[in-house]
Amino acid sequence: MHVFVTGGTGLIGSAVVAELLGNGHTVLGLARSEASVLALEAAGAEALRGGLGDLDVLKEGAARADGVIHLAFANDFSSADALARAVAEESAAVATLGEALVGSDRPLVTVSGTPWVPGRVSTEADPVPTDGPVGGRGRTVMGVLGLAARGVRSTAVRLPRTVHNEGKGGFAGLLTGIARRTGVSGYPGDGTQRWPAVHALDAAVLFRLALQGAPAGSVWHAVADEGDAVRDIAAVIGRRLGLPVEAVPQETYGPLGPIFATDQPSSSARTQEGLGWKPTHPSLLEDLENIMER
Prior knowledge:
The chain has helices at about 10-20, 35-45, 55-65, 80-100, 135-145, 170-180, 200-215, 230-240, 255-260, 270-275, 285; strands spanning about 1-5, 25-30, 45-50, 65-70, 105-115, 155-160, 160-165, 185, 195-200, 220, 225-230, 245. Strands 3-2-1-4-5-6-10 form a 7-stranded parallel sheet, sandwiched between helices. Strands 7-9-11 form a 3-stranded mixed sheet. Helix 3 (about 55-65) runs parallel beside helix 4 (about 80-100) and helix 4 packs parallel to helix 5 (about 135-145). The chain folds into 2 domains: about 1-160 and about 195-225, Rossmann fold (3-Layer(aba) Sandwich), CATH 3.40.50; about 165-195 and about 225-265 and about 280-290, no CATH class. The chain is of the alpha/beta class. The chain is globular and about 55 Å long. It comes from Dactylosporangium darangshiense. This is SDR family oxidoreductase.
């Protein structure tokens, strides 16, 4: 299968590209910079120059492919306005990709976040939130899944709060970056809230499986660790960086503060049974041991 991938040079995307190439597929990757072009070509993929806001380029990429995996996101969490702009850009991009595939029965695999359900572990049957700081992403994904009725084999892979590799990535990576800047390995609230996690190499396998055979309109959870307490995550970061570990104000995390403070464990039991996906790589707490000391 010739696959058009957006976000193919990021921590998750590079793992997905390698997974696809290693299993007989070819890849056309969206590249917004010369560095991205070189990275894709070095991996063995073809590059298509453009960014997530270049809708005509996205149409071209989808037209040239047998299937699409969408991973790109601006990841600008500096302010509520910046986050809103990133969500709006992604929404327009995904709508464009979807329309390009209507009536073709080709796969479109998009990315989402695992939902949180008060008082219990969330499952694939639970809806994603469509309000709050990233509610727009939930509405976008619902639109993608709706394309199943229009001849698109659309599916969503829900990622947990931390997708990690070599101690980097996701919400845990943000905690590490803030700890380096502030000199404190902090956590919001009492730190007992739980975040799910998955290794990027395990997530990449699930994206491939969804591309190859997931039914139209289906939802899958790329969750290996159902939920690590944020205080435990901060403790490993603090130990690796030689920093004190303590509670900090929720406002420390800007527009993500309310999400950081939420208990949000999640399960992948249905995914593992339905697609035969089995995570095999290190857990988050194990992988954080790769954080380099300051």
